[in-house]
Amino acid sequence: MLKALIDIMSDKVKRTPFWKNVVIGKDDDCWNWVGDIEILTGFGVSTKLVSGSEVVRKAHRIAYILTFGTVPAGHVIRHKCRNQICCNPAHLIRMRTHPDEEDEYLVSAYYYNSKRASKLSDFEKRRIVTLKGEGFRVKDIASHFKVSTSTVSRVLKGAR
Looking at domain 2-112, which of 3.90.75, 3.30.70, 3.40.1350, 3.30.160 is its CATH number? Predict the structure, then answer.
């Protein structure tokens, strides 16, 4: 499937400077963003000067646009893998900002109520340690990352 995705990306798109900040791995792996990270949300971001003003965009959204084209108004790009720095087009899904009945199933299945598809990434582990250091409760951190409190505790013990 991913081979088909990469095939749709024109050579011009593949040479876009954006992809130099993405560690492209195997088809099913997360392709992690190695550029700037937004401190508050943990998402990868790309900054560009446009007409003298700095424009900041989420890296995964740019990856989606470069691969599939524009994102319709009222839609967001979400990660199926829940890795906020992943730019693998196969892991990205377009959804309405305010899901209607049709999208509600997808939101539930992919984003809110589903089990984690993979282990915590190194970035997520570092983020857990940072959040705990900022005073967040283990229960709240676990809820945010969709893992158990014991998983968060193991991460915190391993960080020491």
Answer: 3.90.75
Assess whether pLDDT exceeds 50 at residue 68: yes
| Long-range contact pairs involving 1-6 (C-beta distance under 8 Å, separation at least 24) | 1/27, 1/90, 2/27, 2/28, 2/88, 2/89, 2/90, 3/27, 5/67, 5/89, 5/90
* pLDDT, the chain, mean: 77
Distance in angstroms (rounded) separating the CA atoms of residues 152 and 75 = 32
Distance, CA of 155 to chain centre? 20
- Side chain identity at residue 147, one-letter code: V
**Rounded-to-integer distance, Cα 17 and Cα 36, Å:** 14
Contact between 37 and 130 under an 8 Å Cβ cutoff? The reply is no
pLDDT single digits (tens) 30-62: 899 998 888 777 888 888 766 777 778 899 999
Tens digits of per-residue pLDDT, 84-98? 899 998 899 888 765
* Structural domain boundaries in the chain: 2-112, 122-159
